[in-house]
Design goal:
144 residues, mainly alpha, 6 helices, 3 strands
Length: 144
């Protein structure tokens, strides 16, 4: 995207009148878009034109460059308090999930022990079923 500058600012930097620049625009030697001139076109027409010599323009560039980031941060990024609340909720959710996992792990271990005790009095068909259940529980019991 080309840098633009207002006709009046360009005239002030060049040390010419606004009227002189507007005359060049009317003659077609310089193009304006809503009162804005292209910096590169000005540099070709006026080799002494320099953006570095205008601290106001440099300040505008800095403001433009940083304002987008601030606007995005203020509109998109949540505030610190909001982040802290979200983090605290996630911590609570994680604690609940860990407690549930611990209960289910204990339940699976208790079931395996109960199945092992049932093997003592089981006939061959029951024993086969108990072994199959124990293999399935053991295969799906994740100790992490």
């Amino acid at each position: 995207m080309a840098d633009k500058i207002a006709v009046s600012k360009a005239a002030a930097i060049l040390g010419v009148s606004r009227r002189d620049l507007q005359q060049l625009i009317r003659q077609g030697q310089l193009h304006a878009d809503n009162g804005q001139l292209d910096v590169e076109e000005l540099s070709r027409l006026y080799p002494r034109f320099s953006m570095e010599e205008c601290p106001e323009l440099e300040r505008v560039k800095v403001i433009k460059a940083t304002s987008f980031g601030r606007r995005v941060a203020s509109e998109v990024a949540p505030e610190t308090d909001e982040l802290e609340l979200r983090l605290a909720k996630r911590d609570r959710d994680l604690a609940v999930a860990r407690a549930e996992a611990k209960r289910f792990r204990a339940l699976a271990e208790g079931l395996i022990k109960e199945l092992e005790r049932s093997r003592i009095d089981a006939n061959s068909a029951q024993l086969e079923l108990l072994e199959s259940l124990m293999r399935w529980i053991t295969a799906h019991n994740c100790d992490t």
